Amino acid sequence: MNYINPSPIKAAITAVGAYVPEEKLTNAELEKMVDTNDDWIVVRTGIKERRILKDSSKGTSFMAIKAAEDLLSKRNLNPKEIDAVILASITPDMNVAATAAYVASEIGATNAFGYDLQAACSGFLYGMSNSSNMIASGRYKKVLLIGADKMSSIIDYSDRTTSIIFGDGAGAVLFEPSESGYGLEDEFLRSDGTGRTFLNIKGGGSLFPTSEETLKRGMHNLYQDGKTVFKYAVSEMANAIEQILKRNDINQEKISYLVPHQANKRIIDAIAKRIGLPDEKVMSNIEYYGNTTAATLPLLLKDYESKLSPGDRLVFAAFGGGFTWGAAYLTWTY
Ligand code: UT7
Asked: Are 87 and 62 in contact (CB under 8 A)?
């Protein structure tokens, strides 16, 4: 069951920061790497280019730190005031040693604790739930939520089914107790573990520890049964959004923006059509970033930040590996 927050403290997003690498990987470049073409990629996915962190000495933390620093400087915030750092990612710097702890130290958040959250493309959405509940508990005043993924580190660039989709990036938001009365209003989160056969990295975990065999079979790379994931993504994201609309008595007219995970333009269009939302109310950046996994939602906020006003009603939705999915309703504060 999900309940509407009974706490008198409402958590609001009070600042946004972002970082994407300079280097672009265009469809024309991909044409030289795998058997694909610009037309197929644009028609089937809506993607024209993605950003890639080419420097192999840098991991996800590099982008997460940049996004956090962007937020701190915009807000003129002393990092020592931050209580917690949550990093949503499927590409931590290392499998063990929370990347969030390193990010917190590097940005000077020395009074914070940090941990990683792994829920694939729903990581940031689940993180919104964690962060806002920490604020609503009254124990914490400033929670920094970062979504960051160096997807290029887990992609096989000879596989045309995955290499064309993903890109690298990072986005960050600050959750604080709301002073305006606006903030996170409701959430509807779900998961279904039977979906793990369709989207995964099989190797390197406790089930298939890294071995010559797992490396030879490419089990350290991302695998996706695109067609199946597509089908579930459309129906479950749309269901979750409909639950949120019904429970909060909001309709298409009242929504200011849908903030959907950016996996495929056709998925986004199908959902918008099902709930009757016109294009101008749907945030989108897939054309130039591709699917940045946990970074897509905060990158959208950064791109649309200047268009938002206090009280705007935003409906977030995401779907990802696990399967994990859900929707959240947030009223904007600034
Ligand atoms: O973010 C986490 C959640 N992920 C998602 O939500 C992703 C969901 N899935 C998708 O976005 C889409 O399924 C893909 C973009 C991955 C694939 O698009 P599709 O329309 O489902 O294509 P398909 O897999 O059905 O393949 C259609 C055809 C096949 O050829 P045949 O069998 O019809 O001859 C593929 O071999 O297109 C072929 N194909 C390609 N052709 C050119 C597959 N990839 C490519 C490619 N370039 N890159």
From this structure: no
24 bridge partner residues: 51
Indicate the number of domains in the chain. Answer: 2
How far does the centroid of ligand 1 lie from the alpha carbon of residue 149, in Å? 22
Q: What is the pLDDT of residue 8?
A: 85
Question: CB under 6 Å to ligand 1: residues?
Answer: 36, 40, 44-45, 121, 160-161, 164-165, 226-227, 229-230, 233, 263-264, 267, 291, 319-320
| Confidence check: pLDDT of 7 > 90 | no
CA distance to 117, 187, 230, per residue, from 136 (Å): 19, 14, 35
Per-residue pLDDT tens for 277-326? 999 999 999 999 999 999 999 999 999 999 999 999 999 999 999 999 99
220 part of the active site:
no
What CATH number is attached to the domain comprising 272? 3.40.47.10
Mean pLDDT of the chain: 97
Taking the C-alpha atoms of residue 329 and residue 324, their distance in angstroms, rounded to an integer, is: 17
Of 152, 177, 202, the domain-final residue: 177
Nearest alpha carbon to residue 135 among 178, 188, 181: 178
Q: Are residues 24 and 164 in the same domain?
A: yes
Known catalytic residue at 261: yes
Q: Are 203 and 210 in contact (CB under 8 A)?
A: yes
pLDDT in tens, 223-257: 999 999 999 999 999 999 999 999 999 999 999 99
Domain that holds residue 281: 184-331
- 75 and 166 in contact (C-beta within 8 Å)? no
